[in-house]
């Protein structure tokens, strides 16, 4: 598993992008990386992927430090993969099928197996229906599904999601949550960077809060989100279920369905206005 | 540009065997280049127009507009061949006199022009038959079956994808400039166009860097598999 030990990263123009960041991905199965704009989430992801090399500190994979050579990275990136925020940056082919198959063909998998894995990935992400379409005629949400399918097809142990639901409509957001949950159920480790607190709260079990290039808090999600002052400092806010719990004296629930169930049990059906 | 692409993906002939479409268009194109026969040119032009409008379902007006796109180039080149300058009068069938030289049309230049014009239109029709019914994704598959060098196919594919991204970016910026009154008068327009070009360039460069990163993530090792 991945562990970052006190890593700092300085860009070539000497702006500091990460300061003594330590994270351990053994702490949970769906790990959140939360922080406001410019907190350093994306830089941290690029460091974890081995695209950027920390200027100080070290990243460990299965207790061994990362090696920054081609051969090592070739194996490493089959085990650790990443979905970018903007799907257009991850899609090279103008044909959906070929794009999902891209990484698989790069690592030299036989065409028959490629087909099986691509089809499976397209099914899982709900992109099968438009697999023969040209990419530039897809909607943003559809492109996002294709980009995720391209990573899922790789079948890596760890998947990093950079802002997976940014700019998506509610239905698509739910679709992405389902995909992430499915991956996690298959035993894959998922790391999600986001500043959508409700999203993080509903799916993640452990989290790190980044603020101004540093990790300022970490812990199980419920603990993390009860620290109001720290969230404020990081330009974040509490998820609405947490606010309802704190300000209205309702028990704490992890998702809205259980809150609504609780409520209708308490007040009978009279509170149902739908 | 985009319009041709859109038609290629949505017409009624899109689903037909790509190889068939490719072979038919290319054969028609080359026969039109090789053989010199006015009737043949007319048959190709009308025939393709009928295929594209009746079978593929492209509106006739739209198709004619597409055919007219290269007409200014065609017109200019035809004019240079049609008109000849000479000091003797007997060759011309129509002429004007300037000083002691004549500018006019001769029988041979007229004949050449008619053939050239019809041939160009026939070739153009054959090209449109290819471009309007064979979407790029199918063309790439055809090139692959024909064992074209991978480098060529890669370039075709990537250039195509980048053109689409470029156009998208361009359109967005263009709209933004309009909304900020960037085309108010001629002077401002010039400045806006300069801004558009510079920011298009910088954006494309940063796009390129980001694509490089995601190529690494996708385990790219020098070959594009198509």
UniProtKB/TrEMBL annotation, chain A:
PROSITE patterns per UniProt: ABC_TRANSPORTER_1 (PS00211), ABC_TRANSPORTER_2 (PS50893)
Localization of this protein: Cell membrane
Domain ABC transporter intervals: 2-237
Keyword Secreted: no
GO aspect biological process, one term: cobalt ion transport
GO cellular component: ATP-binding cassette (ABC) transporter complex
Major place of residence: membrane
Keywords: ATP-binding, Cell membrane, Membrane, Nucleotide-binding, Translocase, Transport
Statement: the UniProt record of this protein carries the keyword ATP-binding: yes
Pfam families xrefs: ABC_tran
Role according to the record: Probably part of an ABC transporter complex. Responsible for energy coupling to the transport system. Part of an ABC transporter complex. Responsible for energy coupling to the transport system.
Protein name, as recorded: ABC transporter ATP-binding protein
UniProtKB/TrEMBL annotation, chain B:
Cell membrane keyword on record: yes
GO cellular component, one term: ATP-binding cassette (ABC) transporter complex
UniProt subcellular location: Cell membrane
A GO BP annotation: cobalt ion transport
Chief site of localization: membrane
CDD domains found in the cross-reference section: EcfT
Transmembrane feature ranges: 16-35, 41-61, 73-94, 114-134
Topological type in the membrane: Multi-pass membrane protein
Pfam families, per database record: CbiQ
UniProt keyword list: Cell membrane, Membrane, Transmembrane, Transmembrane helix
The name this protein goes by in its record: Cobalt ECF transporter T component CbiQ
Taxonomic source organism: Alkalibaculum sporogenes
Lineage: Bacteria, Bacillati, Bacillota, Clostridia, Eubacteriales
